[in-house]
Amino acid sequence: MNLAQFREAVNHSFVPLEIETDDPNFSGEITEVRASGAAFVAVRADPHIVHRTASLTRASPHSAFKISLQLEGCSVMRQAGREVPQEPGDLVAYDTSQPYELHFPTRFAVMVIQIPHERIRVPQHLHHTMIATRLTGAEGLGRIVSPFLTSIASNMGELEGPSGELLAHGAVDLLHSLLLAQVDGDEVAADPHHRILLAAYDFIDANLRSPALRPEAVARAVHVSVRHLHSIFSRQSVSVSAYIRSRRLEKCYLDLTNPALADRSVAAIGASWGFPEAAHFSRTFKKAYGISPSRARSRSEAP
């Protein structure tokens, strides 16, 4: 890709960004797969600088975490007043709802996974503890996550295969654990709303198939008012209904790509997870994943 094509691909795969380079012969490559509600993007390109400016953040306040694994070359990431140098094997997390800058001084390769905020069960006021911190691939969970993501980057096609959704789901869960490890446990425990939020998450996950799963039912289960429940979820930049919908869609995707359920119709799978109207299910699924439920199934059946 030339610079114009690369800019367009980056903005499509991630969030609106500014890219600057003084290389008239700039070239780059991007490979993207969306699965399990996340975007897995492998990037290889010539030197450049990426800016997520305050104006872009206001114009497109997309709430997601990006976890970047340096595969080749080096980079420097800046966000929230911190500067994080990256070498091959290192990981760093940053937040698309805040301005940031990425500097790639040499030709490089990275693997970036973009995960919606609602998938990370940490109170929003503690998000700052997870971002702009170097996570070395030589110690702790980094020793597990780094080679796993490196393998995915080398085999992106596997994310579109029959077991791709399960692989992506495992990767997201592993990254969730990595981010949680950066949070001060005492600070989380001291948050009076965190217990309620976790109880709400657990109740929702245990009742996703129930037609009666609505904010009112969740509020009753965790012994708070509906208004208070909405207030707690709003701090996570997601509504109660949106969280329920995203979890149901994730379960639908897992079932659609499960070979053991190949004999079940797309409509039946949607209905079993709270989407009784086939047309509405198809529209909602496509908006979330970029492909129709039928396409998700056929892609998983490809040899």
Indicate the radius of gyration in whole angstroms. Answer: 20 Å
Biggest β-sheet: strands ordered side by side in the sheet: 2-3-10-5-8-11
Average predicted local confidence, pLDDT: 86
Q: How would you characterize the largest beta sheet?
A: 6 strands, antiparallel
Order of helices and strands: HEEEEHEEEEEEEHHHHHHHHHH
Tell me how many strands there are: 11
Dominant shape: globular
Total of DSSP H or I helical runs spanning 4+ residues: 12
Q: Name the structural class.
A: alpha+beta
What's the end-to-end separation, in Å? 29 Å
β content, as a range?
A: 15-25%
Helix fraction by DSSP (H/I, runs of at least 4): 40-55%
Instruction: Give unreliable regions as ranges.
Output: none
Give a written overview of the molecule.
By secondary structure, the protein is an alpha+beta fold. A 6-stranded antiparallel sheet has the order 2-3-10-5-8-11, with helices on both faces. The chain has a 5-stranded antiparallel sheet with strand order 1-4-9-6-7. A hairpin with a 2-residue loop joins β6 and β7. The two termini are 29 Å apart. The mean pLDDT is 86.
Secondary-structure map:
Blueprint: H1 3-13, E1 18-20, E2 28-35, E3 38-45, E4 48-52, H2 54-59, E5 64-72, E6 75-79, E7 82-86, E8 91-95, E9 100-104, E10 108-116, E11 134-135, H3 142-154, H4 164-180, H5 185-189, H6 194-206, H7 215-221, H8 226-234, H9 240-256, H10 266-272, H11 278-289, H12 293-301
Antiparallel strand pairs: 1-4, 2-3, 3-10, 4-9, 5-8, 5-10, 6-7, 6-9, 8-11
